[in-house]
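Notes, p. 3: input format for complexes.
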Amino acid sequence: MISVEQALEKILSYAGILEEEEKPILDCLGQVLAEDIYSDINIPPLDNTAMDGYAVQAKDTLNSAQESPRFLSVIDTVAAGYISKREVKPGTAIRIMTGAPIPRGADSVVQFENTDELLRRESSIDRQLPGEIGILCEAKVGLNIRRAGEDITKGSKVLSKGVIIRPSEVGVLASLGRSKVMVIRRPVVAILATGDELVDINQSLSPGKIYNSNTYSVAALVLRYGGIPKILGIALDSEDSVVASLRQGLDADMLITTGGVSAGDYDVVKDILAKEGEIAFWTVRMKPGKPLAFGTIRGESKAGVVRNIPHLGLPGNPVSSMVTFELFVRPAMLKMMGKKNLVKPTVEAVLEGPVVNSDGRRIMARAVVRERDGKYFAQLTGPQGSGILTSMSLANALVVIPEDKARMEAGDVVQTMMLDWSKE
Ligand code: AMP
Ligand code: MG
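Output follows (424 residues plus magnesium ion):
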């Protein structure tokens, strides 16, 4: 039996970075940018006002104050999106709205609150442009002016190859007028459930049968981490059935089967790996998830290219398949997508009850981690049987009990892999 680290290293050695593709920016969330992005414009493109107010010449406001306003004649009004044709000359002002370009001749903007605008508005019946405006403070050159290129300068590098596209990067790209960008493509992950007992959720149950939940939990994990699930349905516990179904997935970047990897009579997946490709390992020193199988299946893509597709045979127990996905499939997917950080966030937490480790495997125990007074506390989510899927639903973390610890007590500090930050 190999360790979790050895298993992960092996799996990652088969996960190559995928090709680049050009896509609309909104489809790229969570993907890695495959090009440096330079700006061919200034943002903002022109000097503009950060406030609603009056564009003036600062020297015209010398000695202006609440009790001694300086009156300027108002020659125009300009809204965002328009450029005034007039020029601010000594003794004049242009009424201007936030975002509008600074008119020629002006060097500062006095906001409405520092003029008698509001008084005039109260007394004016038809909200006409005032003939003159009283300035109630001194303006310094540059007051309330946002300079052209202050956010992004024309020609500068704005985003670097390798960054992960989040909503803010989508916004930055849009601000540059980019509708498409080059990103590393998402992996297609084919998912096959195995088991004579399985029935699809659209079918009705008959005696002895259970619903296939693994396909759906695994597909949801693939989606969550940015991949494209390709659902291959359910195969029976026979080599012929599993091989026939797997053939439908040979154009995927990764094959995932669930079930059929234990030591039981009908556990055919590892035999198939050995016959249809190469088996790299079977069984990992962990709990749940011991009977994990990994290897490659020889396949031919639609384009006729022969290649070895990484195949993870996840254990059939619903908790085991999810936990092994988080530990092994997720990092492999992220690596394929060009990501550098492959580990889930991990915190140290204080254990709130004892955990017994009977057979020297690494236990990944489902737990709820809560923060109290700046410390994290981990409480197991009740029975830890690997068939108890609701224990996964209750959890927001996996507590790591090392293989060399036979027992851990309440109060011990444990490493805790966060699956989600909160259950709220
Ligand atoms: P196996 O690894 O095939 O021996 O399966 C272990 C346990 O997980 C058995 O109790 C199976 O019935 C159950 N199981 C296997 N596959 C699924 C699935 N797709 N959905 C729900 N339970 C499953
Ligand atoms: Mg089975």
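The chain is about 20% helix and 30% strand.
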